[in-house]
Amino acid sequence: MAEFNGTEMKIIHATFAILQKEGFTKATTKKIAAEAEVNEVTIFRKFQNKNNLVEITKEYYLQILFDKLADIFDFNEDDEIEAYLQSNFIGLLNLPDNEFSVFKIAMEEVRDIPEKKQLISRITNVIIDKLDEFFKFQIEKGKIRAVDSRVLALVCFSVTFQSVVLLKVYDENPNIDSDRYANNFLDILYNGIKA
């Protein structure tokens, strides 16, 4: 990760705060300068333009998120499937708001700039790739039957991610404790829906 001085970090943090509140299209260098308590000229001197500043800010926070996701989705050879998946769900659910906000900004980016889906794709690919790796390993060990590990990873990611988005972004509470929710999800995954 690139090294930034104190003023640059103030500007990067302010940019992230404005992106969280306003989204890309409404974020202006004037608002960012006010939030960072610097002159707008300082932003242009340090980052040239708004687009560069936003890209640097996204990359900075994306790397922090990637490091956290690597911790959440890392596994050991002896990890049990159920415990691993529950740990992933709880880990995502317990991400601090400032780290989870990268997801929010990525989703806003797709809405504001539909042709630019790369940020959300990069985030989802990191998670899906790690789940795929875990399921391939479990198939090799004979812990789960031979299925398409990528499809299984996508199913688990979809349910987990959508659930976490509903809880953290939209404040939708399914009136169920997160541990119980994770257990019920895993029960359906393992046992299906047939009576």
TrEMBL record:
Top-level taxon: Archaea
Domain HTH tetR-type, residue spans: 5-65
Coiled-coil segments on the chain, per record: none
The keyword Cell membrane belongs to this UniProt entry's keyword annotation: no
SUPFAM superfamilies: Homeodomain-like, Tetracyclin repressor-like, C-terminal domain
DNA-binding region(s), chain positions: 28-47
Name this polypeptide is given: TetR/AcrR family transcriptional regulator
Organism from which the protein derives: Methanobrevibacter millerae
